[in-house]
Design a protein that fits this description.
Elements (H helix, E strand, L loop, with lengths): L27 H4 L10 E14 L5 E17 L2 E10 L5 E8 L4 E4 L2 E4 L10 H4 L11 E6 L9 E11 L4 E10 L9 E6 L5 E20 L2 E17 L4 E16 L3
Antiparallel strand pairs: 1-2, 1-13, 2-3, 3-4, 4-5, 5-6, 7-8, 8-9, 9-11, 10-11, 11-12, 12-13
Amino acid sequence: MTHGMTTLVAGIATAALAISGSAMAGTPSRTFLQPRLAVGERMTHVFSRAISIEGEGFKEYVIRISGTARDTVLSIEPQGITLQEHYRYDGHAASSGRWKILADGVTHCWKGRCSIDRDTSGIIFSHQLWGHVPENIHVGSTWTATIAEPWELGPPGKETVRVVGIAPARHVVTLVRTGSGDYKAGDGPTRAITITTSDGKALEVTVKPGASRWRGRTIVRDGIIVGDTIMVTRHVTLVSASGRTFSGEERAYTLENLLQDRT
C-alpha cells in the first residue's frame, strides 16, 4: 500500500531514470505503463485493506485498515527519484517522511532503510508483481509473470496478465491479473491473531496459510496506478499454543485509487 504500513514496483531498471518523460522503446501502448513523473508533481491516493477469516468453531475474524497518502516528487537524479510523503492511517496520527525509488526501479528506501518493494497496490506500475511487458501490447494481449518471493498479500507463484482496455488518447491501460501459488514449507507468514470461539472465549492462534488464488483489475496511466482492486483467497489453519486447531477460509483484498489526478 504505502510506506507507513508493512512496506509492501523490475523491468523499470534503467528506464526508471527516464521517468521524467522520455518514452521507452516499443509500441506507444507499451509506453503507457512506463512511469513518467516531473519534479513538483503531486499524487494523492486513498487506500484500504481488509482480511476476513471464516470457519467452524469461531466467530468471523475481520480486520480493516484504510487511509490516504500524498506524494510529491522532490527530485529526479541518476541514483533514483526522491518523494515526500504525507500519510494518515484512519485512527492514527498523520505522519510524513521522504522515500526514494532507486535506479533499479524495485528498491524503495524509506527514512534511510532500503528494501525490495512488495506492495500489492503501489502508486507506480512495477514489474515486480506484473512481470515483463511484451514489446507489443493490445487488447487481448497476455503474458505470464513469475513472482519469486512472498508479497504483501500472497506467496510466490505464477500470474497471468491480460490487457482488457487501452485508451491511447489518455495513455491509459487496463489490466486483469489472475494467479496462484503456495508458501514454501516453513516460509509462510507467522501471523498471530486473536479469535473469539463459538462459546465466547478469546483465543490467540497462529495462522498457517494454504495455497492461494488471486484476481485483480488495475487501471494505469503513464505508469501511475489510477485504480487497483485485488482479492486473494486461501484455506488457512488456525493453531493455538495448546494445539487446538480450526479450519478456515481467508479472504483478503486491497483497494487503491488516485484521488487527486496528478495535479
